[in-house]
Amino acid sequence: MKLLNFSFLTGLRILAFPCNQFGYQEPGNAEEIQCFARDRKVQFDLFEKIDVNGKTAHPLWQFLKKEQGGTLFDAIKWNFTKFIVDKNGKPVERHSPNTSPKEMLKNLEKYFDAKVEL
């Protein structure tokens, strides 16, 4: 909820890109994914399913990985890898799937003109 409040105060946008490259955890088609998200009342922008690794990786994800490389190698290692892109469109941080949205709030404050009480 605090992340949603922060989003409202700052104009932060949360973008989700379904991907089926990690244990085939996102097998549905676009309509099934949209229904799943709608049923759960998601509060972020949900895009079409894409690839984030390999020769078929979406150009946005190629850019994100180039700008914010990973530990050991640049490939996305698992679902829910997160990037912070500042308000000028520059990728400034990369976070592992284990990083919670709450943990990211303090980092987000550096790039957006707002403070959130945790």
Automatic annotation (TrEMBL):
Listed Pfam families: GSHPx
First and last residue of the signal peptide: 1-16
PROSITE patterns recorded: GLUTATHIONE_PEROXID_2 (PS00763), GLUTATHIONE_PEROXID_3 (PS51355)
Keyword match Methyltransferase: no
Source organism, top-level taxon: Eukaryota
Record CDD domains: GSH_Peroxidase (cd00340)
UniProt keywords, alphabetically: Oxidoreductase, Peroxidase, Selenocysteine, Signal
Entry's Gene Ontology molecular function annotations: peroxidase activity
UniProt entry tagged with the keyword Translocase: no
Listed GO biological process terms: response to oxidative stress
Family: Belongs to the glutathione peroxidase family.
Protein name as catalogued: Glutathione peroxidase
Organism (species): Clunio marinus
